[in-house]
């Protein structure tokens, strides 16, 4: 089959995202083919990525054949090379991510297979999920026994350490001794602060610290990593393509990688990152892996058996862009039935 049209659009979010997300949150890609099959994908980069696709990448894709995973990989390489003058990372690769995921969806729908089947078949009947957000009691009520909290710097070191310690005590009491507990510092800590927190939290068996330093500070991360052991140093959501992760591996900067499938270059890039991680014996837990794009990757046996669900607070109103996405049941996720990714876009938001 051949591609007849490629179109990207930015959703009309009813619940307006905050800060940078207002104009640069997730965009949508639709790809049509000459056999009447269409596929959908999602990528980061917002309005800017929409322009990259509609004004540049579309011209490279229309008329091209898409009959195999190898075809998708070739199209990925062509888009990457064509966008080099302004790309290599960031918004250009986020745009490629959306196209790549739509291509996987097209191929799955055309062959009557799920993306998980295209990846080799289901290796996990269900994927363990962890809840990200501030409402630990609600997550317990939903059956989660894994939780990540955002703990950015807000004031003095003593006050911030005390606040984080209070969270750890409460979360451990609420979720139990066997629960996984993680912290997202969102690039706001210093090495000294991270070490101080690690020492204070030693009794609480924290699984990982995420995005502790700026992602460019690989030297700092490499130096910090052994100092906070046995807490793992995690990161990678702001990295793009296997090239970035190869640099991280060579620097031994992180214990655990967290590529975002909708940002790092799509499934094609995620598979290359997973292969690299396996060669270095590094676990992979995708950023927002509980969304449908990462869930197929995890269900097919790639990465660890752990998927992030950004849950927010109980009762919060959220846009439902993708219809049919699985919801957590007793802290686990099960892939939906159906070809491709098994979801449909909510066209009311387009």
Q: What is the total tally of β strands? A: 13
In which range does the helix fraction lie?
25-40%
- Main sheet overview: 8 strands, mixed
The class by helix and strand makeup works out as alpha/beta
Strand coverage percent: 15-25%
Keywords for this entry:
TIM Barrel, 350 residues, 2 domains, alpha/beta, 12 helices, Enolase-like, domain 1
Care to describe what's here?
The protein has helices at 21-24, 46-61, 69-82, 90-111, 115-118, 136-141, 157-175, 191-200, 218-224, 241-251, 266-279, 292-299; strands at residues 3-9, 27-33, 38-43, 127-132, 146-150, 180-184, 208-210, 232-235, 256-257, 307-310, 322-323, 332-333, 344-345. It has 2 domains: 3-111, Enolase-like, domain 1 (2-Layer Sandwich); 127-349, TIM Barrel (Alpha-Beta Barrel), CATH 3.20.20.120. It contains 12 helices and 13 strands. Helix 2 packs across helix 4 (90-111) and helix 4 (90-111) packs across helix 11. With 350 residues, it is of the alpha/beta class. 39% of the residues lie in helices and 16% in strands. The protein is globular. Strands 4, 5, 6, 7, 8, 9, 10 and 12 form an 8-stranded mixed β-sheet that branches. It has a 3-stranded antiparallel β-sheet with strand order 1-2-3. The protein starts with a strand and ends in a 5-residue tail after the last strand.
Outline:
The protein has 350 residues and is an alpha/beta fold. It has twelve helices and 13 strands.
Task: Please write out the topology.
Blueprint (H helix, E strand, L loop, with lengths): L2 E7 L11 H4 L2 E7 L4 E6 L2 H16 L7 H14 L7 H22 L3 H4 L8 E6 L3 H6 L4 E5 L6 H19 L4 E5 L6 H10 L7 E3 L7 H7 L7 E4 L5 H11 L4 E2 L8 H14 L12 H8 L7 E4 L11 E2 L8 E2 L10 E2 L5
Parallel strand pairs: 4-5, 4-10, 5-6, 6-7, 7-8, 8-9
Antiparallel strand pairs: 1-2, 2-3, 4-12, 11-13
Helix pairs in contact: 2-4, 3-4, 4-11, 7-8, 10-11
């Amino acid at each position: 089959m051949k591609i007849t049209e490629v179109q990207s659009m930015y959703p009309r979010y009813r619940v307006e995202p905050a800060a940078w997300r207002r104009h640069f949150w997730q965009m949508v890609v639709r790809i049509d083919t000459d056999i009447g099959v269409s596929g959908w994908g999602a990528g980061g980069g917002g309005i800017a990525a929409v322009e990259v696709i509609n004004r540049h990448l579309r011209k490279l894709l229309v008329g091209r054949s898409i009959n195999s995973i190898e075809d998708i990989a070739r199209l990925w390489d062509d888009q990457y090379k064509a966008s080099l003058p302004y790309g290599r990372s960031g918004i250009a690769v986020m745009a490629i991510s959306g196209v790549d995921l739509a291509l996987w969806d097209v191929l799955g729908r055309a062959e009557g297979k799920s993306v998980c089947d295209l990846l080799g078949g289901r290796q996990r009947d269900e994927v363990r999920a962890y809840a990200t957000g501030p409402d630990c009691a609600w997550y317990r009520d939903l059956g989660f026994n894994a939780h990540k909290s955002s703990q950015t710097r807000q004031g003095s070191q003593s006050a911030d350490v005390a606040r984080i310690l209070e969270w750890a005590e409460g979360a451990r009491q609420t979720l139990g001794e066997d629960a996984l507990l993680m912290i997202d510092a969102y690039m706001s800590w210093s090495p000294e602060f991270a070490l101080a927190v690690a020492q204070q939290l030693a009794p609480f068996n924290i699984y990982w610290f995420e995005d502790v330093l700026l992602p460019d500070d690989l030297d700092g991360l490499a130096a910090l990593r052994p100092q906070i052991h046995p807490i793992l140093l995690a990161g990678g959501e702001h990295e793009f393509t296997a090239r970035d992760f190869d640099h991280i591996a060579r620097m031994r900067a992180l214990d655990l990688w967290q590529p975002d499938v909708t940002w790092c270059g799509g499934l094609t890039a995620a598979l290359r990152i997973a292969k690299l991680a396996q060669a270095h014996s590094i676990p992979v837990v995708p950023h927002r892996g509980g969304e449908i794009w990462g869930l197929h990757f995890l269900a097919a046996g790639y990465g660890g058996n752990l998927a992030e669900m950004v849950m927010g607070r109980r009762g919060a109103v959220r846009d439902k862009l993708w219809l049919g996405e699985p919801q957590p049941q007793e802290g686990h996720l099960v892939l939906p039935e159906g070809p491709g990714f098994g979801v449909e876009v909510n066209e009311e938001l387009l």
